User: Fold Metallo-beta-lactamase domain-containing protein from Acidocella aminolytica 101 = DSM 11237.
Amino acid sequence: MGFLTEPEPPRHICLDVLPGIQRVVAANPGVMTYHGTNSYLVETADGLAVIDPGPDDTAHVADLLVAIAGRELSVILLTHTHTDHCGAVPALAKATRAPVAVYEVSVNLGFVPDIKLSDGGKVSGFTAVHTPGHATDHLCFAFKGQAGERLLFSGDHVMSWSSSIVSPPDGDMGDYYRSLSLLLEREDDLFLPGHGPMLSEPRILTAALLAHRQKRERAVLMALAGREWSVAALAADLYAKADLFLKAAAQRNVLAHLLKLKAEGTVRELSPENQDHPDNIALTALAVKHESWRERVSRMQEDAKRRFGLSAGEASV
Ligand SMILES: [Zn+2]
Assistant:
């Protein structure tokens, strides 16, 4: 797939992206975050906007305040409420008194939003585009650039450097397919993602991401045609991942495929009706905010014990 790379960006510095748009890259590099979370500063007719203040990191908030340089902040926008994007919201909102705008329904808030956006909602020149899949409350923000470019701040829904994890229950593969298809119908010129560099000709990568998942879904169905699988075993068969976290992430993606196929009536879940599964908690515990990554890996692996089989009458792939 045509992913982009970039050298590690300079830290604690405001980087020019496009006229009127800058980013500060948070110092939270990792296997899921690339060089770190992009916090964007965007000049609008109403004043400055910040998209995704980033993780709860005092130094990053200080860098943002230096970049804001005393300018009036009209709004803080959140693409979604994962902690690498929203952890700094309370500190930045307190320091700037700017209102915080987020999707109207959210499960993971550690603060009270001032503006609740629905699909198509508008604030300071941005239009919210509800794009669940990576997270139920995920929004992309459409914005007209100073040179007339049709920009989309794409958060973690479509990133230039990697595909997104779709981890149930907050992540939903059916929603992810629909939200990728939605972006294919749009005519944006550039995506500005939550991690990684700006993406030009964004529909090429978006189409490739959707095709990649469809290919993976076919592989899941072919594997299920002959036998029953646990999620962990199927993920190990389909993905070659040595890193513990990436292995767990692969299991989450496979589980997400299986739950989508189950919702469509194609596969049959052999639990929890017949067995006591420790992962039942994971499907009801929507708030995962305070988990360390080790706790999250352990929860993911417990969840991966879940077993699936192909439904009768759906064996031809
Ligand atoms: Zn992120």
In short: Residues 33, 37, 82, 84-85, 156, 194-195 surround zinc ion (CB under 6 Å). The first strand starts at residue 15 and ends at 18. The chain has two domains: 15-212, 225-310.
